[in-house]
Amino acid sequence: MSEMKLKISKVKAINAKASVVYIVNSAADLKTTGLSKDELDYVTKQFKAENKSAIINKATGTIVVEKKADKKEEYLNLEEARKQAFCTSNSLNCVKETAVTVSDLTGSTTYLMAYIEGFALSNYQFLKYFEDAAKRAYTLKNLYVLDDTITKANLDELVSIVANVYEARTLVNEPLSYLTAEELSNEIKRISKKSGFTLKVLNKKEIEKLGMGGLLAVNLGTPNPPTFNIMEWKPAKAVNKKPIVLVGKGVVYDTGGLSLKPTKGSMDSMKADMGGAAAVIGAMATIAENKLPVHVIGLVPATENRPDGLAYTPGDVIKMMSGLTVEVLNTDAEGRMILADALHYAKRYKPELVVDLATLTGAAAVAIGANGVVAMGTADDKEFESLSDSSYEVFERIARFPFWDDYSEMLKSDIADMKNIGGREAGAITAGKFLERFTDYPYIHLDIAGPAFLDFPSSYRLKGGSGVGVRLLYNFIKSKAGK
């Protein structure tokens, strides 16, 4: 269970018992704050030295003055606000402050909201398995917002978004010793009760009855059964007649199967191979909590991939739920096997659009690193443009790859309808083309292999599970609602 311990609330005046953050265009904005001449001179000196922040330590608490970024693109300014907040959050936690008041003196509500978001995202910790968790815990408990333009509803929405990024991060950070496929379903059940979406969990017998050959094949090597999770948010007055379906890869741990991952460090973080599932779960929770008037369905096939004696093997031919046969040449290309069944299942909803998220290929991570999300698909340009707008707003940027039909030629098999890998070249794209074969609707594939789990701290995204995809999907679905 993940809990957001930083309480965010509005105030009408500076809290005397809290540290203070002022966001300013220049030191001149501080003249009405009661800072002394020496303090104002110090801030001016820091800004002239091109420092973005000035920190004043007083017996009554810490004062931080943040200079508002002034970049050409607004989305870069908002990202700078989040990064500034990360640095300040760290500083205040280091000196054991318990509360902070943030006051904007620039008149930019969007900048202030981005700052608060970055501050809250920075305060996440995963301490479940530490003996001295209480000692390690951050001290900041209250963030007070002094601003007339921001409403309680604005803050409630922000808290919901951040809290569900926390949920996604924690799901990714949990090891297999806790988070099996069945336990993932239990976590979704807990989150559904809190958030308000409905949930149906299919067990192994029901999955067998549906003929989900891909999911069942990947599951053969583990003693733990698979699950197939169906989440739904269906408001009474939805703006869409056909649902939007979100699909998340839920491989709770991936050894590569019999095609065992060979390289140093390649298996250490494979508890994160359900980052797509975590993103869909977090997004569904945020959509439901904020009662967006959009009919949305979330599908998560879940299993682990292990090299047991019963495991599926390179050379096997698997019959998928759709009826297509797949020659398996690499059991480490397992994510596409389980997603294929989920994408075929999505056809029954006659969806307006399907978006899948998956830590699918190392090729995507090699191509653009952790800096963004690889995107491709058959949806029209307007859908991609809308998703791209959302991706820049939340700074989970998408890079659209070509999706030319000739890439499908690389998936032709001599003994089956297709094979599950296309070779070394264009690996991220051929993975997407594999999945396309199981769709008959407008479709977007998002490969989040790069940013889903971070080996080194990255500002407010921190180290470990980043929760990438939650904010992106929520912002995108919200734009569908016309909000």
Task: Give a brief description.
By secondary structure, this protein is α/β, with parallel strands linked by helices. It has 14 helices and 20 strands. The two termini are 30 Å apart.
Task: Describe the protein's architecture and organization.
The protein is an alpha/beta fold. The chain has two domains: about 5-150, Leucine Aminopeptidase, subunit E, domain 1, CATH 3.40.220.10; about 165-480, Aminopeptidase (3-Layer(aba) Sandwich), CATH 3.40.630. It is about 35% helix and about 20% strand. Strands 7, 8, 9, 10, 11, 14, 15, 16 and 18 form a nine-stranded mixed sheet that branches. Helix 6 (about 180-195) packs parallel to helix 9, helix 8 packs antiparallel against helix 10 and helix 10 runs parallel beside helix 13. The chain starts with 6 loop residues before the first strand and ends with a helix. The mean pLDDT is about 95.
Features:
single chain, 483 residues, alpha/beta, Leucine Aminopeptidase, subunit E, domain 1, 9-stranded mixed beta sheet, 6-stranded mixed beta sheet, 35% helix
- Please indicate the count of domains: 2
The major pleated sheet works out as:
9 strands, mixed
Question: Which residues form runs of ≥5 with pLDDT under 50?
Answer: none
Structural class: alpha/beta
Q: Alpha-carbon distance between the termini?
A: 30 Å
Q: What fraction strand? A: 15-25%
Q: What is the name of the CATH topology of the largest domain? A: Aminopeptidase
- Apparent shape: elongated
In the CATH scheme, the class of the largest domain would be Alpha Beta
Number of strands: 20
Calculate the mean pLDDT score and round it.
96
Nearest-angstrom radius of gyration?
Answer: 24 Å
Count, helices: 14
